[in-house]
Amino acid sequence: MTTKKVQKVPTSIIQIDDVPDNPLRAIAREVTEDEYNSPYLSEVLKNMHKALAREKDGVALAAPQIGVSLRIFVVSPNAYPETAKSKPLVFINPKIIKASKKTAVMQEGCLSVRWIYGKTKRVISATIESYDENGKKFTYGASGLIAHIFQHEIDHLDGILFVDHGFDLEEFTEEEVRNAAK
Predict the structure, then answer these.
(1) Residues of the domain holding 115
(2) What is the distance between the alpha carbons of residues 150 and 154, in angstroms, rounded to a whole number?
(3) CATH number, position 42
(4) Does 7 fall in a domain?
(5) Contact by Cβ (8 Å): 65, 16
(6) What's the domain count of the chain?
(7) Nearest one of 86, 2, 74 to 36, comparing CA atoms
(8) With helix as H, strand as E and coil as C, how does the chain read?
(9) Is residue 70 part of a domain?
(10) Hey, which residues are catalytic here?
(11) Cβ neighbours, 10 Å, residue 145
């Protein structure tokens, strides 16, 4: 196992126009076998959890959203409160291995294109194959919001934003969004 020096990993969510060569527009690289259980991967995950926790309306976050080009996303417990899980789910090197033929149009937003919302058409159920932070492979099947999140976050890992294929896009102020949520 090779040891990588822990570098400073950002904790802020970047916006689409924040930086040149923005990782939001690149295909993220896979986490390698020797990176599991490494200080670097631990730091990335810790900072992703911190960044997501600061966003009260956020339900998931991909590593490219904090400027790290790795195929990782986390899903907040806020997205699946019925399971009473207290920590975010971690998906490393995820792949959708099964998807329904049936689709639905849903409202969507993104922490990296803040305050823009629109509609997207996505499959209504999906099964994902992934690895956890220890390198253990697992599958997770979901429908509704969680399946929608899987697709949105895997798009991030492929350099795609929902605004690239969304429609009826509208920009709101933060205040308008907060008032609508009440």
Answers:
(1) 23-181
(2) 6
(3) 3.90.45.10
(4) no
(5) no
(6) 1
(7) 2
(8) CCCCCCCCCCCCCCCCCCCCCCHHHCCCECCCHHHCCCHHHHHHHHHHHHHHHCCCCCCEEEHHHHCCCECEEEECHHHCHHHCCCCCEEEEEEEEEEECCCEEEEEEECCCCCCEEEEEEEECEEEEEEECCCCCEEEEEEEHHHHHHHHHHHHHHCCCCHHHCCEEEEECCHHHHHHHHC
(9) yes
(10) 153
(11) 14
Residue 42 CB partners (closer than 8 Å, separation 6+): 133
Round to whole Å and give the CA distance between 156 and 150: 10
* Residue 15 lies inside a defined structural domain of this protein: no
The span from the CA of 176 to the CA of 88, in Å, is: 28
With tokens 């790290």, the residue in question is: 68
Render each residue's pLDDT in the chain as its tens digit; 182 residues.
Answer: 444 444 566 667 767 666 667 888 999 999 999 999 999 999 999 999 999 998 888 999 999 999 999 999 999 988 876 655 677 899 999 999 999 999 999 999 999 998 899 999 999 999 999 999 999 999 999 999 999 999 999 999 999 999 999 999 998 887 887 777 66
Does the residue 4 lie in any domain? no
Lookup result for tokens 């956890």: 132
Model confidence, pTM: 0.87
Q: Using CA atoms of 97, 99, 105, 106 in order, give the dihedral in degrees to the nearest 10.
A: -50
Beta bridge partner(s), residue 139: 129
